[in-house]
Amino acid sequence: MTALAESNGIDEATVRWWATEREVVAFIEAEADLLDDAEFEAWEALWEPDGVYWLPQSRSQTDPEHRVSLIWDDRPAITRRVDRLSGRLAYALQPAAQVSRVVGNFRIQPGDDGLIEARSRFILLLSRRGQPLVLGGRLLHRLRRRPDGFGMVLKRVDLVGADALFENFTVVL
Length: 173
Known about the structure:
By secondary structure, the protein is α+β, with helices and mostly antiparallel strands. The chain has four helices and six strands; from the N terminus they run H-H-H-E-E-H-E-E-E-E. The chain has helices spanning 3-7, 12-36, 40-44, 75-86, and strands spanning 47-56, 69-73, 98-110, 116-128, 131-146, 149-159. The chain has a six-stranded mixed sheet with strand order 2-1-6-5-4-3.
């Protein structure tokens, strides 16, 4: 514990939690960079074997198995998505989209099951074939600590306007 924290009556557990929060923010920001840079294989390595990538049709949706979701990818489906997005033969994805996103407003808390829950907001700017698009919404990451940092058990994307018509998603949100 630092002398500054100790002199201000801040206990060691609080200092450790602050360090965990900073690690989680850095992890999610690094994930955003991987996606913006189309480093899909590196992004895939962030997933746990039981990981799920979920984009529900409605923010109020709590059951992905009995309601329509825009995306509900278990781990094998995440691998197929990465293969498709990384493939040079995916002509429908050419030219590749230019993407930049901002992630912020982080709220991080320990989960009941030993996982860490991180809630945040995002804005994504996308340009493909000269057509700009702005997307935004809320993110929920459920993370498991592992020796190299964290692994994603769940990434839920509550997209603003998710009930609207979209072309095929050519980016990972």
